[in-house]
Amino acid sequence: VLWSGASTFIFLTAYTVFTVPYRAFGAELTDNYHERTRVFAVASFAGFAGAFFAIAMTFAVEGSEERRWVAALFALGAAGFTTLGMMLMAARLHEREEFQGRGGGEGWRSFLDVWRNPHARPLLYIHILG
User: Fold this and answer.
1) 86: burial class by Cβ within 10 Å (0-12, 13-18, 19+)?
2) Which of 44, 73, 76, 80 has the most CB atoms at less than 10 Å from its CB?
């Protein structure tokens, strides 16, 4: 029970550290309603595509006699797709000029900035405990 509780707590904490800035990203990119909607739509599509890929990979691996080879092939494909997507996003998305230079230079300092915000703390609690 302790191991399960600690694992769940650590997972949800890590998930929160990733999810809160990820969900705020669209609002930080643009003030335009339609552009923001497009950013969230692409993010949702990518999430669904990733889930479909994981299901297809599981089905293919389970149905194959060469499971390690098929899993390695899917892993290489996923790594290539992820790398290409990250390079494309880095090339196409730029931080707005009015937002440049904001925030902490280090991840830990940025987390502390969010923690000091009394309105952000309840959101962090909800994400960690939820």
Assistant:
1) exposed
2) 73
